[in-house]
Predict the structure.
Amino acid sequence: MVGWKRTKGIERIMSDDLILLERDGAIAFITINNPAKRNALTLAAWGALSEVIETLEADDDVRCVIIRGAGEKAFAAGADISEFSNKRANAEQALKYGDAVSRALHQLQNLKHPTIAMIRGACTGGGLEIAACCDMRIASENARFGVPINRIGHAFAAGELRPVIELVGKAVVLELLLEGQILDAELALQKGLVSRVVPALELEANVATTAANIANGAPLAARMTKRFINRISADLSPFSDKEITESYEPCDSDDYTEGYTAFLEKRAPEFKGK
């Protein structure tokens, strides 16, 4: 991408045309690649997204994942409605389709690596669901958000509701779904849909800096932090003794020793993920 500060050069890892996976050092990029249709997602694209996330889950060298849309017009404009007549034409087909969507969203929300949604243009429907499953959402001032399914006659699938409700709460979700509003970036920020809004020309640089800040941190600690935050979000019951013990496991790592030693020596730490 123009303006991206590359370290070792971006390497293509996987590609099925609709979902691309690339790496630049410890930072991975997932690109939703259907710009002619504002990155609308087909059933095949949801399946490919699942495969890409599985690949990243198994890669301990990754420290941060950036999800973006190809081109300048959209992050992702939701499902590709042109295939509904043959792949989502009735409740039975819609359930099968929804299973693929829910699986990908669950995998993304629970991916062990920190995730950032880099949002420009349309972020609607399934695109908003993907963004909601990321740990951070950084939006360009030209971004737009909504889930206008009231214009299609389809309810928000039960398996897809949780990430959005966890992000902004029941009241905002009802407002989005029942009115079918499309929100501009500033209003989305006010309602908690995004972490920050930046000028369009600064989006890539802002995301790059954020990803570098994450990648320069201790990866084992970041994964543990994300794991327990997800646990609290899904289940407010008290932590078990086993979970409490596990939360201190990073203190047995080389990274922990490196972290406090670097602090005492007044130098930047060099974490190895071990």
